[in-house]
Amino acid sequence: MTASDPAQSVGTFPPTADAKSAMGWMHTARFLTTAAQLHQLPTVEVPEIAFVGRSNAGKSSCINTLTQQKQLAFASKKPGRTQHINLFSLGRQNTTDAVLADLPGYGYAAVSRSDKMRWQQVMVNYLVHRESLTGIVLLCDPRLGLTGLDEALLEVVRPRVEDGLKFLVLLTKADKLTRAEQTKALSIARLQTGGGEVRMFSALKKQGVDEAALLLWQWAHPQAEAVAPIAPADSTLKF
Q: What are the GO BP annotations of this UniProt entry (predicted)?
């Protein structure tokens, strides 16, 4: 058994967690592997949580903020050029009790149609067939709302969500909206989304960071309990 193998090295579930300990858990994230195709990914026997979203939705910033690591997720200067699925393991030293998956961003206009189709197929294959997938975090710029591409992705994962797959929409860049605009954006996203939860998130102002970390910890540790509520009522809309 090797500590770096997520299929074999499973950490002990903590009995309880609050936002602080959940953030500490997120900080343990380290690079595991990268792959251009689903079959190139290692078999994982711990919960796997995928981050998806349009290019420029703030996905890399979100992952780096949650893990408190400035360069864990690569933010390309040329959006849409990151073509691989990147995996990061989570857990105390010599253990892995969850895996984060950073999927390629989609929707960038400067990318060729053939590349778009290829990346889209890789993403669909992953979302539909990845057995270890436990939860999905969809990043969306609330100033744009859920686009047609986002809604197409929702349709792809809907059967798995109905079967119990966890789902969260994070409306990023919340610092660019007033409180009234945030409330409106949450309401619109709730109407557009058929399952999961919707939350505001700001990497700059750290809005929603603790709550998101605690929720992801709960996804990865379903046998454990949370000490504190996940989020205040005005920042969460449940379906």
A: division septum assembly
Q: State the angle between helix axes of 113-129 and 148-162 in degrees (0 to 180), rounded to the nearest 10.
A: 20
State the Cα–Cα distance between residues 104 and 120, nearest whole angstrom. 9
Query: Maximum Cα–Cα distance for the chain, whole Å?
Result: 53
The 10 Å Cβ neighbour count of residue 145 is 14
Q: Region 61-80: what's the mean pLDDT?
A: 79
Tell me the three state secondary structure of residue 70: coil
In a domain, 101, yes or no: yes
Residue listed under structure tokens 């500490």: 24
- Please choose, from the candidates 175, 149, 158, 168, the residue with its C-alpha nearest in 3D space to the C-alpha of residue 80: 149
For residue 51, the SS3 value is strand
Q: How many CB atoms lie within 10 A of CB 5?
A: 15
What is the residue-averaged pLDDT of the chain? Answer: 83
70: left (phi over 0), alpha (psi -120 to 50) or beta: alpha
Whether residue 106 contacts residue 55, with contact meaning beta carbons closer than 8 Å, is answered with yes
How many domains is the chain partitioned into structurally? 1
Distance CA 110, CA 183 (A): 33
- CB-based contacts of 148: which residues, under 8 Å, 6+ apart? none
pTM: 0.84
Domain harbouring 146, CATH code: 3.40.50.300
**33, two tokens:** 């592997």
230 belongs to a structural domain: no
Report CA torsion sign: 53, 56, 60, 65.
Answer: negative
Q: Which domain holds residue 52?
A: 23-220
Is 234 a domain residue?
Answer: no
Per-residue pLDDT tens for 169-194? Answer: 999 999 999 999 999 999 999 988 86
